[in-house]
Amino acid sequence: MPLLSIQKVTKKFPREDGKPTVALRDVYLDIEEKEFICIVGSSGCGKTTLLRIIAGLETITEGTILLNGVPVSGTDTDRGMVFQEYSLFPWKSVIDNIAFGLEMRGIPKAERREMAEKYLEIIHLEQFRDSFPHELSGGMRQRVAIARALANQPKVLLMDEPFGALDAQTRNMMQRELLEIWKETQKTIIFVTHSVDEAVFLADKIVILTPRPGKIEEVIPITLPRLRDRTAPEFAEVRKYILQKMEESAQTR
Predict the structure, then answer these.
(1) DSSP H or E stretch at residue 220
(2) Where are the beta strands (DSSP E) in 161-225?
């Protein structure tokens, strides 16, 4: 049984004229435990909508999502979400931001502090434990956001363009750090990105969505060894193939 199974998922948004906008149609996808999945596609194809449905932030019009065989309904700590905006509390320190979800769950103070310290160490920001978000760089703030999501020990980590607001050098650094975090925590990651280069660098599998209404065009296994060399001919070949598939998909819509 896959860890996460997306079965015939369709999402329609109502409109005033009575003709709903179909964002996703008949999406099927199985995701195994510990996989790193990247979802790509043109703007408006439903990537973020699909991620929000998995997170329980959007309802499904038709279909089912199963996590360990159990239908997903609403938000829960078994699915952690990291947004492009860091969404940190500016009045809380780094350690208190990481511990926030644990506090909301009623975890005793000593236990949640111990867990927060563990994930602070994973993101290598121990020396900034008492700093506030405005004292951190963009990359550091996003690392805190990732640690906060991981502290709740979700089965699946959902990431919506988490590095999109960062400069190119910081973005590349964060991609490498995320792979280290993934390797250490063994979490299943579903990562939405507009960057094919980023997807090829990170993913075990790349899911291409068609232009709206989004449905799966192809699921492409990426077998290149990590850490991947962006300048290698094999890397360029995979990137070229995915870009071609996306362009062909757009032309046939």
Answers:
(1) strand 216-221
(2) 188-192, 205-209, 216-221
